């Protein structure tokens, strides 16, 4: 770990795992994959766009992409992105080492906040999660939390988007099942922002596009990518390689392969509309546990390296943090989430999602989100630079008090003690005080805090006319009149 000088002249910690030459080899390997092996694209428009720019097409939709085209796309893509709150105020600045934290989307299951039951997700869980996350100070953006199994599978994504827009002013990273859902989500956001141009200037949302494979790009993913590019709205484009299954078991090969899939999407977006904001990860590679065949979210090999590759490009970065493979918000969950939050923050994973995930991405927990909010606060304080000045060195104060006094009643102490970090959830009292207050575990305290926020926090409502417009879009989708 090295100290980098920030603009404030304070040193801030930054982690590097890969050497520059390793990062360059990963980049070059991705170019070789795209030029020699190529990708299959199941959307004709994407094939034609690449063909016109020198891509070599064979077998209908297998495209080999020249390295020069990728380098061009990297040169014209925006080097930063901003996401705004509901009022159009920029609040997330995706650049450099800045890191912002958000929840995850579409877990099949939840741990019921009220009963502790492990069960399939419902729409009410999304509403409650959105309200609590709107109140949590260290959750910067929202995702849809869980799959609402109490709604029709074809249209539940519209209900997810409405729940987030209606119950929080924070930026949203939305996910949709199909292309039509993406169109409707953008239309809802345009209604909130005040029109298409207002949303483009001050985007309150971005689309999270999951790609079926690094070398096989499904039609829905490509249609969403082209649509978001045409709109000039930010999006991720994320093929996940499961090491040993959908890609090489070695991390280097998996990263190069996943990154190649991302770079193919970047090129397509830039050809469609030069300057389209695309958020890269550097190539998501997940460990496949060969004992259980489970996709491990918290394996140490998953951490940091892909973010470093994305930093090589100087483009906005999509990260993953605050998640665990544990089944409950227990000691394992806290430990894995803490490691992930710290390592991804040190690496500079700008738009870091999946805070609160448990059970390898299969279960979400508001209790765990609340615990992670505290872990993020701890990490943010650690990341602050140390001011070394006449005031903070306090040499005159040390000399005044000398070897026989103490600093407890010092004016200097009274002036500065609030600069330390004081937890809101972690327990620091004496044992007797903790025991007298019920001897509550971290999980119990997290549950109480979440329930208290749910009871007391009142999200700012949407204007009535905007709410009606969003409701109509959801109703149209449910009646079969969804956007095409």
Structural account:
- This protein has 484 residues and is of the alpha/beta class.
- The chain has 2 domains: 73-383, TIM Barrel; 390-419, no CATH class.
- Helices cover 44% and strands 16% of the residues.
- It has 18 helices and 23 strands.
- The strands form 8 sheets. The protein has a 4-stranded mixed sheet.
- Helix 12 crosses helix 17.
- The longest helix has 22 residues, at 251-272.
Per CATH, the superfamily of the largest domain is Trimethylamine methyltransferase-like
**CATH architecture group name of the largest domain:** Alpha-Beta Barrel
Radius of gyration, whole Å: 24 Å
Beta strands, count: 23
Low-pLDDT ranges: 1-9
Task: Give, in spatial order, the strands making up the sheet with the most strands.
Answer: 4-5-3-14
Q: How many domains, in number, for the residues?
A: 2
Beta-strand content estimate: 15-25%
Number of helices: 18
- The CATH class name of the largest domain reads Alpha Beta
Q: Would you tell me the overall average pLDDT?
A: 95
Q: Main sheet, how many strands, which sense, barrel?
A: 4 strands, mixed
Estimate percent helicity.
40-55%
Question: CATH topology of the largest domain, which one?
Answer: TIM Barrel
Find the structural class using helix and strand composition: alpha/beta
Roughly how many Å apart are the termini? Answer: 50 Å
Q: What does the overall shape look like?
A: globular
